[in-house]
Amino acid sequence: MRAATPARPAGLSWLLIAAGLAWLGLAILLPLASVFVEAFRKGLPVFLAAFDDPDAQAAIRLTLTVALIAVPLNALFGIAAAWTVTKFEFRGKTLLLSLIDLPFSMSPVISGLVWVLLFGANGWFGPQLENLGIQVIFNVTGIVLATVLVTLPFVARELIPLMQSQGADEECAAITLGASGLKTFSLVTLPNISWALLYGVLLCNARAMGEFGAVSVVSGHIRGLTDTMPLHVEALYNDYQYASAFAVASLLAGLALVTLAAKSLLEWRFGGELARPTLSEPIKK
Amino acid sequence: MSLVVSKITKRFGRYPALKGVSLNAEPGEFLALLGPSGSGKTTLLRVIAGLETPDSGEVSFEQEDYLALTPRERRIGMVFQHYALFRHMTVARNIAFGLRVLPRKIRPARAQIEDTVKRLLSLVQLDGLEGRYPAQLSGGQQQRVALARALAIKPRMLLLDEPFGALDAKVRKDLRHWLRRVHDETGVTTIFVTHDQEEAMDLADRVVVLREGRIEQIGTPETLDARPASAFVFDFLGDSNQLPCQVDRDRALFEGFSAPAVVAPGAGPAATAWFRPHETRLSSSGEGLPVTVADILIKGAMVRLECRSRDGRLYEADYPKGTVPSDLIIGANVLLSLQRAFVFPNI
Q: Which residues of A25-35 are buried (b: 16+ CB within 10 A; e: fewer)?
């Protein structure tokens, strides 16, 4: 018999933990702390003044608007995609799964550029849309499209493994018991995935509000009109308004921290349901 | 005739799961679908329930074309292999589900639903557990909740997929007889899938033996035991031995001895005799197959001898404890004769 855990020198684990913590501090905690330090360097009044700026308020409003449109869209898409992939067998399923993942592996700049290519002034559909008086690029529509594309995988990715492990048995049972498709979904499927769905929405939202690259390509950087919070931070920074830039940045960082806290809470409270094996192994008496 | 299944075929991609299956069930009958994994028994069950659409064939129930109905219109109570209880609902909610999803016009009043749940809970002997969640129940309890949930919709037919598959041996036996009792009390036509021949033979009025998407034989347990239609059925229904033989009407002839035989059509003159370990006799002199005892094993109330013939083949023979000579040891030379053999054509 071989020992399950080989003996190790006592100091080694401490050394590894220390190295891990040091790296974490250097790469994550230090930059994060510096954001807040810089934001408050000139005191609370200057920090608050950054949000008195109408441009900053417009940027916050735009970011919220975009997230409010993109997140529900991708939540719906994520549920539909996960449902299709996990409850049905069909040709091209693997292809669909890879397509869902594509935005993760694609540079955000590309996710922005494709919309310019499609709807820009010289794009495929640009001139037609212009004749109709519809402007997509350098407009909120373009920003929403870019954000939707970048954040597309989050909810689907969270739901698919869970729904795969849950299988379709409960849905089959509901149908034989006389439930309609809609009732099966609302009474059986949705409650089974609710926490994973919330988790996915949370991650999706964090990314939607923080997205820079794709949005930067389509936004046109019109202050007070098409600047989202991340773009506004960059603009302020380029104008040497460091205190304001870091103040707005701290709001984004705060959002990340809140997301993290909520995510940890969910994992702690409902960890079993987020990546739960099936009930198929009943508890032995 | 309540259920008529005729010439059902179903393939999954290139893999044919059912190759023309026909069977009937009488009202109130208890039917077992028996076969090894991959024989198509679960697929057949799901076709009857409406969870799979067959490529061709017909399913009707009391003269009603079932293939034209959706699963929810068929009113079939189905118990799934892993029970498929709704994990976020209590036991009571699980059982009431089929009634709660009825259209408002025909949905029973709340008090009536509660009464039904109470009645079913006591039928499945789970009184007092209505507030539990599935994860808080043992496998046997989950199984009984699944059954109560299926019975709540007053099903026209009850289908069970490997109902005892995930339970340990002791619980299995208890539940088996209990299920039979519930069936006899409710009188609903019941079909259950199993790969356990003992379960099928013990419980069912008739057993349907499936093999690679085809029906090998349908019959009462007695018929299957007395007149197995093929070597496959004989082999699947229990432990078996094989010995080459010649056929002379209703006797199997071996070198130096013979045995009474049930001869299948098409067998002989040269064929194979199949026999059960417990349908043999052991002697030290006289007629029989000369073998050497290779091993002696205790199997509950039986003693199993593993015997090797001169050509090196192994034969199993079972005897009640106490009937085996106490001086029998490994390496002893004995004669094995057959009380009853089943002769099938050589494969």
A: eeeeeeeeeeb
